[in-house]
């Protein structure tokens, strides 16, 4: 049974219209909600004392009734190879989550977690070890980015919801997070610079398509047929490959946004030329891009990444079928790079 955390009223998770209601209930003018939103999401302050255009009395009432809570930094790992930083954060209830800051030529990217733990059970992923504890609020997702901005003193231009957790298993908070981070009164991040990854919860994929957001949907595919997908991903027992790919087609039809297929190459499991041929056949009529991922070895699992030559052959085979494909650049390989790896190491550490 997953405990539901009793959340303190959470201003950072509120839209401007909801903040206006809070102001009215406090006997204040509604316009102050925009000032408050600006401090929380544009200036990204950590204390009401910094809100200099709000009266001292209002700041004191807000501090009393709506305490601001930022995650505590437990550990930061930095790659000596490429400067990638991995952050371990402790939430107010003691749960730990992780985020990754990556530097690219086109700008800085942050990969965030959407849940503490995960119930999806993908075989090669450290995030699922120990199962799901709880989902994160919209503000807990935002604060991963805001805290990393404070620490690095750098701008974030891309956000990937691909850390610990299944984002579509936390659907309502995910939508709230997307709308808040793309709000023009706040961080104003373009939705086109937001990627949401899912292992394929088909009904939620259809729901997301109806929202007509401009985010990129990334499907964790990882296999060219149902049999192999079931071996790697328990979700495949519930939704067939055909059902998942039909949902991808609908997403493109509704949004015009090209689908990304994430495909983790696991040595001897899903990386043969026949696998590549089957994959190309499955997706060749979908407007898509395939991201081949050298799987990160996790000590709790016995999967190994494919050899470099095998990865190149797989890529070449897909390209022969005119599939857009890249091999993801390995970053942070000298730190706990796999999703959930740093968190699990911390949880398993003796007191």
Can you walk through the features of this model?
- With 351 residues, the chain is an alpha/beta fold.
- The protein has eleven helices and twelve strands.
- Strands 1-2-3-4-7-8-9-10-11-12 form a ten-stranded mixed beta sheet, with helices on both faces. The chain has a two-stranded antiparallel ribbon with strand order 5-6.
- A hairpin with a 6-residue loop joins strand 1 and strand 2 (85-90).
- The two termini are 25 Å apart.
Q: Which oligomeric state applies?
A: single chain
Strand segment count: 12
* Derived structural class: alpha/beta
Fraction of residues in helix: 25-40%
What would the principal axes of the Cα set say about the shape?
globular
Order of helices and strands: HHHEEEEEEHEHEHEHHEHEHEH
Low-pLDDT parts are 1-5
Mean pLDDT: 91
Strand order across the largest sheet: 1-2-3-4-7-8-9-10-11-12
| Rg, nearest Å | 21 Å
Largest sheet: 10 strands, mixed
How many helices? The count is 11
Beta percentage is 15-25%
Distance between the termini: 25 Å
């Amino acid at each position: 049974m997953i405990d539901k955390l009793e959340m303190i009223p959470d201003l950072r998770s509120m839209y401007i219209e909801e903040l206006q209601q809070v102001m009215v209930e406090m006997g204040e003018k509604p316009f102050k909600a925009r000032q408050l939103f600006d401090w929380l999401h544009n200036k990204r302050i950590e204390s009401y004392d910094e809100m200099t255009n709000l009266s001292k009395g209002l700041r004191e009432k807000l501090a009393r009734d709506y305490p601001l809570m930022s995650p505590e930094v437990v550990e930061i790992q930095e790659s000596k190879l490429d400067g990638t930083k991995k952050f371990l954060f402790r939430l107010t209830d003691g749960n730990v989550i992780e985020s990754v800051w990556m530097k690219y030529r086109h700008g800085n990217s942050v990969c965030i977690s959407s849940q503490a733990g995960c119930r999806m059970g993908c075989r090669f992923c450290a995030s699922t070890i120990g199962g799901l504890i709880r989902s994160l609020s919209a503000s807990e997702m935002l604060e991963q980015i805001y805290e990393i901005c404070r620490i690095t003193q750098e701008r974030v231009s891309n956000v990937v919801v691909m850390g610990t957790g299944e984002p579509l298993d936390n659907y309502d908070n995910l939508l709230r997070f997307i709308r808040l981070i793309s709000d023009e009164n706040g961080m104003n991040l373009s939705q086109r610079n937001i990627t949401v990854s899912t292992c394929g919860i088909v009904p939620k994929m259809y729901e997301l398509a109806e929202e007509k957001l401009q985010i990129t949907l990334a499907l964790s595919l990882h296999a060219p047929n149902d049999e192999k997908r079931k071996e790697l991903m328990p979700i495949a027992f519930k939704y067939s490959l055909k059902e998942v790919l039909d949902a991808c087609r609908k997403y493109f039809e509704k949004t015009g946004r090209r689908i990304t297929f994430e495909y983790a190459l696991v040595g001897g499991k899903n990386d043969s030329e026949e696998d590549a041929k089957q994959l190309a056949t499955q997706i060749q009529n979908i407007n898509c891009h395939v991201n081949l991922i050298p799987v990160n070895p996790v000590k709790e699992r016995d999967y190994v990444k494919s050899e470099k030559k095998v990865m190149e052959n797989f890529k070449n085979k897909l390209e022969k079928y005119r599939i857009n494909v890249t091999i993801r650049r390995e970053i942070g390989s000298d730190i706990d790079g796999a999703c959930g790896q740093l968190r699990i190491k911390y949880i398993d550490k003796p007191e």
